[in-house]
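User: Quick sanity check before I run a bigger batch. Here is a single chain. Can you write out its predicted 3D structure?
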Amino acid sequence: MTTVPPAIATAMNSSDDPKVLRTLGMKGVSLALWDRALPDHLANALDSLPPDNLPVMRRRLAVSQVRRAVLEACEDAGADEIATDLATEIRELASHAMAVFASPMLEIRIQVAEGQPCPKWHVDAVQGRLLCTLRGPGTEYGPLQPSGEPETVHRMRRGRVGVFRGALWPGRELAAIVHRSPPKDAGGTRLAVVIDPVDHAGTA
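Assistant: Done. Predicted structure follows.
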């Protein structure tokens, strides 16, 4: 009996229309990018904050709970001046993630990082992942080669939104767009939003 090898999904779709994010489910597509910029007022406010006042959060939430959770994280961090705008921003990202992953519950992280916490090229061990950098250099990504390195390296601009297929994406196609944190010399403290779907068993 002949074994048919799984197909490899290496296509990347990009548009300034947020509907592009939903093309992640198309055949062969392993990454969908919404090409947009962070609002200037939020970008400037984030840049003015000391790193110790940047909010952090990791919670499992429905979209309706996101705004309150982000407001609380900002209050805990002493970042009241960005709370309303940041809560609006992350709730919008959560709404897109819910639509893409068809998941009513999401694991949402707001992460502050110095250096390069994830230096290795990888596909996440989840169904899918939304990534958006709100401050500092963005995530690097590229199509996987047999060597384990990307064929070409790209970097997401600040504010750009990417949804990546993970290793647990349903079906026989293997996700083959890898990503990693930007190198330390890319500069600056990063503030990133990471959103994963939570399955019915309660795992992300």
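The first strand starts at residue 8 and ends at 9.

User: Great, the batch can go ahead then.
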